[in-house]
Specification:
- The chain has two helices and five strands.
- It is α+β, with helices and mostly antiparallel strands and 103 residues long.
- The protein has two domains: 3-45; 63-101.
- Helix 1 runs antiparallel to helix 2.
Amino acid sequence: MKLTQLPIGARFEYEGQIFTKTGPMTAAGETGGQRMIPRYAVLKPMDGYTPPPEAEATRTVDEKTVLEAFETYHAIALRLTEGLGKAELEQARRTFLAGLSQQ
């Protein structure tokens, strides 16, 4: 477990000593004194602490659904602007669609 996964106040073992997390990269030893804990350090949590579960996979959306929603939005935007900025909206549409095709 890494230090960033522990909340402030959590106890852990590192290099055979017991520490309490006091900051993002610092901890206080049981014998006193502060110590910097490197990001690469592998720690053993004490007091039965378990880290929160891993974040779930990111949501994916079907390309057809995105395109349909975008075209609906684009049609409404063109109607609301009454032709003002139509060229800019069309260019923005082409840029958006080109960005999707690069994925």
